[in-house]
Amino acid sequence: MSSTVTPAPTSADSTYVMNKKLGLLAMVLSATGMGFVGTFGRLATPVNPATGAKYIIGDFLALGRMATGALGMLLIIIAIKKMQSLRTTKLSFTVIAGGVSIGAALGLYVSATLMTSIANAVFLIYTGPLFSALLAWIFLKERITARHAAFLVMVFIGMLMTIGVIDYVSGQGVHFGLQLGADPAFPQKALGDMFGLASGFFYGLSLFFYRYRGDVDSQVRAFWNFIFGAVGALGVMVFRMATLDPTNPITVMSPTHWAWAAGMFLFCGFFAIGFLVVAGKHLLAIELSCVSYWECVVALLLGALVWGESLTLVGAVGGLLIIVGGMGPALGIFTARGDSAPETSVTAKSAP
Asked: How many of the other CB atoms lie within 10 Å of CB of 249?
């Protein structure tokens, strides 16, 4: 059964019905598309012959993802005859901030996958859902149940295991620590890790802002999310070219790189981010936090299978924890018990 949304003025709160099954499906599809970002990004980025490392052009790729998504969503809005809704929807701070935040997050994240391992990049961006859940608990008064907390702890521990923060060293036992220093395989690893951490901060902000303005039609919200996401990615690109690397992507990309970039724009942009907006409307922040970790499993598997990045036994166990913990909320959604009933009436906050 599809949910219904009761339109409300932008200056007031609105009550609408969350469709948890739709939200869950949308989040799994979105996370799967996001998991391919590192692979598409590396295939779309040429190597700097002077340094032997990839150019830092992830911000440009993120900008292209957002621009493609905006165009595709506009065509959908025209096709389903929702231009009137687009024209009459009033923007608010949270709609703009959500888009800018996700654009900045993805610009930083794609660049991070070019400078550090996919595992480290995906872990660091996934500090974001933790920030989002905390912000929603403080400002939106969303309740974090013991069951939800247990699932979130499970996926967090799984993440620590998959990237080696928690590891087992023969003869030494359990080892704790995240390598932030130099790595011969990744000459720009330290900078890449910092980009990854910054992407996590902005990703958390975007998930938090998505919890506002549930009265806005999903297609319209997605369109503006892409538009302002392009602004956020462009901001990162301007910062990067002014302070770190002045490389103009257009001058270094070959036709093959452009072809991979186009695939990234469509699959990791229009497809993945469009479903993320739908999920943000139909799942609570804590549920988004858990299910979104599926992206980590996809990214880590691609890192191992495509790029030869090692996946240890401890890492594999961590991936299993992510799957179990991340998909745990789905059990409540499909059994329609407690606070995870398939359809839940909530109050969507509006910001002036």
From this structure: 23
pLDDT tens-place string over residues 293-345: 788 889 888 988 898 887 678 877 877 787 777 667 666 655 554 444 445 55
Residue 220 CA to its chain's centroid (Å):
19
CA–CA separation, 219 and 225 (whole Å): 10
What's the chain's length in residues? 352
> What would the two tokens of residue 63 be?
């900008």
Cα–Cα distance for residue pair 105/292, rounded to 1 Å = 15
In whole angstroms, what is the distance from residue 71 CA to residue 264 CA? 15
User: What three-state secondary structure class fits 173?
Assistant: strand
CA distance 296 to 310: 15
Instruction: Please say whether the beta carbons of 70 and 143 come within 8 A.
Output: no
Residue type for 102, please? I
List helix spans (H) across the chain: 20-35, 37-43, 58-79, 83-88, 93-115, 118-125, 128-139, 146-162, 189-209, 218-243, 249-252, 255-264, 272-282, 285-291, 294-305, 313-335
Q: For the residues of 254-265, what is the DSSP string, one character each?
A: -HHHHHHHHHHI
CA nearest 107: which of 239, 305, 286? 239
